[in-house]
What we know:
Helices cover 16% and strands 41% of the residues. The chain is an alpha+beta fold. The strands form four sheets. It has a six-stranded antiparallel beta sheet with strand order 5-6-3-10-13-8. The protein starts with 6 loop residues before the first strand and ends in a 6-residue tail after the last helix.
Amino acid sequence: MRSHEIDYQIYGEEMQYIEIELDPQEVVVAEAGSLMMMDNGIRMETIFGDGSYNNSGIFGKLLSAGKRVLTGENLFMTAFENVGYGKSRVSFASPYPGKIIPIALARFDGKFICQKDAFLCAAKGVQVGIEFTRKLGTGLFGGEGFIMQKLEGDGLAFVHSGGTLVEKQLAAGEVLKVDTGCIVGFTRDVQYDIEFIGGIKNSLFGGEGLFFATLRGPGTVYVQSLPFSRLADRIIASAPKAGGSRREEGSILGGLGNLLDGDNRF
């Protein structure tokens, strides 16, 4: 189906949100739990999958929902429709510090491949499916498993990245090496593979894992500076352990530092 034409505005810097403006009967589909606020003229409905299979019966809806389960996403999505007579707005918040990226699928020949948790929302008609990696090694060690998400259609979709966003334009044959977790997404003609870092010291003590992701052009690649997995690891490492206090922020002052900065836990 042809995607609905929606207007949007992105607000904020580190913690962004996107405001979607809908004409009457226009619909935007979003990940469950991403809603920030909406006008009174917006009707919210929980649906199977991405809503692009409404004319294909129950089998098409189950197929769409099943694809989302394979990527580790929620079985359901939420559709927001303007049921009023004038323009209405609905806003969605980014899940953690970073940037919201508008993806005009028509500009990318109707297809964009992204990491499994990057999708935020899209105009109704955009298909949110799965993309299998072609090589066993890429699936096992590429950081994203065997399956990534693909967005297909002719409308607008929005994905989220962590930290600072970098857009790289790769020429034909040009190769970019990226930490596997730092990939946000890439266009359909980019070839995705992995490469062993090499060297015993690099592998064991380099702290960068065993593999790079290699992206070969031509095409567009989006890279993030702070993957959510890296952010979560830092939070977990700094959290207080059961039965003890937090890891000391000042190694010289030790427990005295906790007293000085107002943290009196022992």
